[in-house]
Every structure is written in C-alpha cells, then in structure tokens.
Amino acid sequence: MRGIEKLQHFGGLLFAGAIFPLGLAPFNFWPAVPLSIALLFRTLQHKTVKQTLLNTIAYAFGLFFAGASWLYVSIHEYGFIAAPLALLATVLFCLFLAFIFAMPFALSAFIPQTPISWILALPSIWVLSEWVRTWFLTGFPWLFAGYSHTETWLSGWAPVGGILWLSFLSAFSGILLTLIFQGHIKLSTVRRSAIVMLCIVVAGYILQQYEWTEKSGKPISVALIQPNIPQGEKWSKEKQTAILTQLSAQSEVHWDKDLIVWPEMAVPTTPERIPVFMRDLQKRALKTNTSLLSGIVTYDNETHRYFNSMIALGPSVGQYNKTRLVPFGEYVPFESLLRGLIKFFDLPMSSIARGGDNQEPFSVQGHLISAAICYEVVYPDLVARTSIDSSVIMTASNDTWFGRSIGPKQHMQMAQMRALENAKPLMRGTNNGISALVDHKGKIYQLAEQYNITVLSGIVQPRVGSTVFSKLRSWPIVFIALFICIALITTRNQHGEIKT
Length: 500
Description:
Elements: H1 3-18, H2 32-41, H3 49-67, H4 70-77, H5 83-102, H6 115-132, H7 158-182, H8 187-208, E1 213-215, E2 220-226, H9 240-251, E3 259-267, H10 275-288, E4 291-300, E5 305-313, E6 319-321, H11 335-338, E7 362-364, E8 367-373, H12 380-387, E9 392-397, H13 407-422, E10 426-430, E11 436-438, E12 444-447, E13 454-460, E14 463-465, H14 468-472, H15 475-495
Parallel strand pairs: 2-3, 3-4, 8-9, 9-10
Antiparallel strand pairs: 1-14, 2-13, 4-5, 5-6, 7-8, 10-11, 11-12
Helix pairs in contact: 1-2, 1-3, 2-7, 3-5, 4-5, 6-7, 6-15, 7-13, 12-13
C-alpha cells in the first residue's frame, strides 16, 4: 500500500471511529453505531495480526478522541497543564485506550476467513473488547455500543443480558451491513438474518412491557441538592465556610422530606475537622426524621487512609466508601515515580484509598438504598452486585471535571442503563448537573438544569426483586463470546478454512 493509499485508508478508519459517538448521548442517532462498526469490520477480513491491530487502533483512536474529548478539559482546566501539553496527554491517553480496545481483535486473524465465521466471531470479539475495558487496569468502561439502544426497543433486553448483550446486537448489525454491502452473503442468508434481527427487536419491545420488579411500600420524598460549586473553589480553605453555609441554606426548606442527598464530596473536609457543623446537622436530621446522605472525605485513624465516601446522618446510619477510583483524579498509578513530577499528578484528593467489597446499603424509611459514587455507575456488574438486594439506586457525582463538554450527558445515559438493567429506580445527585430521577424502566422523569444552583425534589417509588442481569451479570454473554471464538479458532486449526 503506497503512502497516499495508507493515508486514505487510516484516515477513513479514523473517520469511522469518530462517527461512533453520534449514536450515544447527547446525539442519540443510534444508526451511527452499527454503521461505524461496519466500516471497521470491512477492514478485518483476510488480514494478518499486525494489519488487524493497526486498523483497529486507528479506528479506536478516532472513537476515543471524538467521544472522550472531555479528557482535554479535565487535564487542561483542572490539571493545570498548558494547552499543547494537555492536547498531547489527551492524544497519548486515547492511543493507550485504542491499544487496549484493539488487543482482542487480534483473534479475528485466527478464525476461518468466511462470512459465517465473521458473523459469529466479530460481534463476539467486540463484546470481549468492551468487557476487557471493564476491568483491565481498573477499567475504562466508557463508549459502549449498547448505550445507543437506551431509548430503542432493544432496551427491553437490558434486564436480561445487560449492556454487553446490547453491544453484541449492535456489532451483529454492523457485520451484517458489511457483508451485505460487500455482496459476501447470499440473498437467502440476508433474509434469514433480517428475520432474526426483526424477531430480536420485536422481542425487545415485548420485554419492555415485562415488570421484573414490584413496588415496595410507600414512595419516598427526596431532595437532591445541586450546589454548583466551581472546581477551582472546591478545596479552597477560604471557601470552606461559604460552601457549608450554601449547602445548609439549600437544604433548609427540604427537612420535611424523607431524604436529602448532597453530591459527591459536597463537604470538602473530613467530619473530624468540622465537629460542630456535623453535630448540628445530625440534630436537625433526627429532629425532622429526615435522612441525609452526603458526599464527604473520610479518614481512617487506624490505616491513616482517606476515602471518597457517602455518609448517612439522622435516622439512617452507615458509610459507603468508593471502590472504583479514577486514575490520576483519585489515585496516581506508579505514585512513587510520578508524584510531584508535574501539577497534574498532584491534584487535590488524588491520594484516595479504595473502599472494601460487600459494603452494606443505606436504610431510609425502611428501604435499602445502594450507593455508587461518580465513576462507579459506569460499571454494570458492580452496580448489579451492590443493588440486587436494594430497592433504590443512588449515585452521587461531581461532573464539574467535564466542563461544558458532552461528558455529563454520556455519564447520565450510563446511569439510565444501570436503572434499566436492574429494574430499580435511580437517583442521581451531582454538583453541577445532570441531577435526575430515573424510573425502573430507565426513563428520566425529573431533571435539574445543568450549571445552576438548584434543588431537584420529587418522589421515588422503591421496588424489590431482581432481573436476570442482576443475578447473572455479564458472565453469560462473555462466556458465549469466548466459546464462539475458541470454537472457531479450534475449527480452523483442525480443518482449515470452512466453506460456506
């Protein structure tokens, strides 16, 4: 391939990846996802491992650079890095993500190079690629194909197979488009495939009508406090009193509610350093019989570690410590080498410890409420595990790091999917938006305007029970994807190419 042809080839792959985010929030043009995937899959046929990896890395770089552009905002505006260096850091991080994305696709070079094998294997490899991103180096489970179906009929499958099953269906559509455009499959096969997809879509609509969980007790009244504190003022000692005063003032008329929620790290210090303020809050909450769940920094005197926590005041008790930490934002990988090198590695609260597994949910008015702090809500299996015995999911966040980018809307869409997967209502309280109430079908029914000081008050109906996904999580589709890949690779090794 000559120089100009290589430029056109990889430029086309970058473009193909860049249109992928158009299928997700805030654009929600779902056909962009299977089209984008189809443009990648057409370049993975009859290729060596090296060619496959290069093609996939180019595609994935376009995907992440377009879809996770908010990384630049976080690094430049809040990491105190000059614009050129912030751009370079964003490019390097997107290349790193692209490399992780591409690794599983090396398997496509080992399967039989036939249409039927591609139909089975490429969607399976896509699923494995997304699954790896849920755990490798703590994970970055962002920009999954299945989120394009948050509002379509296929969303009915979410309580059954979760986000990775929806991604499989998206990738399956992508490979069918590829083969149809290339003329690699017969018209009869196209018809059969179309019928299969139509049945899956109709089944999704039918599943949307099914009630996986049932109402539990009386609804609870809630107030989500959105203080809209600028990130630059968040950890200023001079602003601490003003922040606490504002939180109290915004909550003043809502002590008649069952629950008040303050967002992630709303209180910018540890409870021990503001004992009078915490004691007064506790008294007020007990007097009004109102539970207050607040984001706060906590400190363990025995281990000498800080945690990103949610604590309960009033009639509720308990503490939840965040278990999935944001690299560089809450902890620094290879800390002994990087700490102090540049300001980005010394961000406030970048020495947070990981919370333990199997933490107890909060109890509010007899209802169990599971917590997910910020980034944790993008981990489907984590939320399924922690919420299976609860009746409400509560997520608190500080999306100020995203600036005025598409990040908060992507984050909100992922929270919707967690409500849908587990068929539980979800409350999302944030510092500057998007704060929302989501029903058990994943529909937002109340929303607070972004970038404003406001309070979102409403009613949440707790629900008990569990979905198939809540019980089995992502394991069925992961095992199916692995089985398909292993079976096809073994078949090729034993019998050579399969004829169709």
